[in-house]
Amino acid sequence: MNLRLLVAALERNLGNTLTPELAQGLLSTLQQPDLNDRINVEDIPAEEYEGCLILAERIEDLVDEIKPLHAAHWAETESYRHGIELNADYDYMVNAERQGRFILFTVRYEGTLVGNCMMYLSKSTHTQKWVAEEDTIFILPEYRKGRLGVRLIRYVEDVLRNMGISEIRITVKTVNTVAKLMMRMGYAHTGNQLTKVFEE
After folding, report:
1. Radius of gyration of the chain (CA)
2. What whole-number distance in Å separates Cα of residue 107 and Cα of residue 149?
3. Domains in the chain: how many in total?
4. Cβ–Cβ < 8 Å for 80, 71
5. What is the pLDDT of residue 1?
6. Range(s) of the domain holding residue 2
7. pTM for this model (two decimals)
8. For the chain, what is the total number of helices (H) and then of strands (E)?
9. Could you tell me the mean pLDDT of each successive run of 10 residues in the chain, 200 residues long?
10. Where in the chain does DSSP place strands (E)?
11. What is the dihedral of CA 184, 166, 41, 70, to 10 degrees?
12. Residue 192 resides in a domain
């Protein structure tokens, strides 16, 4: 039962006549899956793989630590927009995290941050189901050994599924072969993203 969503729906309908249709809508609101306002990453168990630790962490706690990783990711995969300076909005990410609309997964080797996957969470306006949209999946090249990338993705999938997410959307760049890996892992090619970058 989702009382928070029900309260929000009642507030939106203050003053409206309680019709059978409105009553049905309010009842269905109670049955909608919802995520917690704040995701408790401390409750998500970590996983060890080949000397690395895969876990969920708060970006709020490691903004400065993650910046070099994001810069490496930008340099490797975003060449089509290198005329634009990387200027990540970490305040936005922290606020989204506090609202339960963002989750960060990390990979650490001997305590050092060597990879991450960032997901934004939202409810689809078409299906009313929760969707996770990838912002970043990246592991430093020197740590891309064995099946670490696969283990990270499977870990992310397991956590998101247990949270009530019903769909994951991932964008892959044409500068690497990640698309082939994702399709081998069961992801479908459902569209093509086209980009035009205006000169500043």
Report:
1. 19
2. 10
3. 2
4. no
5. 43
6. 1-32
7. 0.77
8. 6, 6
9. 63 79 68 58 94 96 95 80 79 89 96 97 90 94 92 96 92 81 89 80
10. 47-49, 52-57, 102-109, 112-123, 130-139, 167-169
11. 50
12. no
